[in-house]
Amino acid sequence: ENVERTLIAVKPDGVQRRLVGQIMQRFEQRGFKLVGLKMLQVSDDLLSQHYCELRTKPFYPRLLHYMTSGPVVAMVWEGHKVVQTSRTMVGHTNPAEAQAGTVRGDFSFHVSRNVVHASDSLEGAQREIQLWFQRKELLNWDCCDQTITCE
Ligand code: DAT
Ligand code: MG
């Protein structure tokens, strides 16, 4: 019950600063399950759909420029309450207000370069995963621990 999926994306600054491994490690060590992963140059079209709620904001043009300034690493993580838990792990939108121990609180200091994206609700996660990933790019797998057979 409550097994959810969420979209996490390491933004161009995170990729350029070689933070992908450290960010993925946090989700793995928390125990979440990676079910989708790809590196991509995001298109304006994808971004305008992804950030459709922000299109009237003054910072929107700069946000699009930042998000298309280099490749992004997109991932889908699965687990119990992963949407809310990953928001907590990622920290406040504005890194200046993000707590130490969060990704943004540990790796960034300004809202214009906040390293990572995380879906903010179950509905948002479902919408974003559909937008970023094809169905066949999401893989179901079982843990080897559960499939060991003793002869
Ligand atoms: P979040 O990424 O925490 O879900 P959001 O959805 O409100 O935050 O905004 C999306 C991104 O837009 C955010 O990660 C960074 C940018 N952004 C938000 N508010 C901003 C602001 N006041 N100035 C500059 N960029 C901002
Ligand atoms: Mg958001």
Automatic annotation (TrEMBL):
Q: What is its EC number?
A: 2.7.4.6
Keyword match Cytoplasm: yes
Q: Which Gene3D superfamilies match?
A: Nucleoside diphosphate kinase-like domain
- Give all residue intervals belonging to the Nucleoside diphosphate kinase-like domain: 3-140
The enzyme's first-digit EC class, named in words, is: transferase
Which named protein is this? Nucleoside diphosphate kinase
Q: According to its UniProt record, which reaction does this protein catalyse?
A: a ribonucleoside 5'-diphosphate + ATP = a ribonucleoside 5'-triphosphate + ADP; a 2'-deoxyribonucleoside 5'-diphosphate + ATP = a 2'-deoxyribonucleoside 5'-triphosphate + ADP
Q: Which domain of life is it from?
A: Eukaryota
* Pfam families according to UniProt: NDK
Mind listing the GO biological process terms from this record?
A: CTP biosynthetic process; GTP biosynthetic process; UTP biosynthetic process
* Binding-site residues, ATP: K11, F59, R87, T93, R104, N114
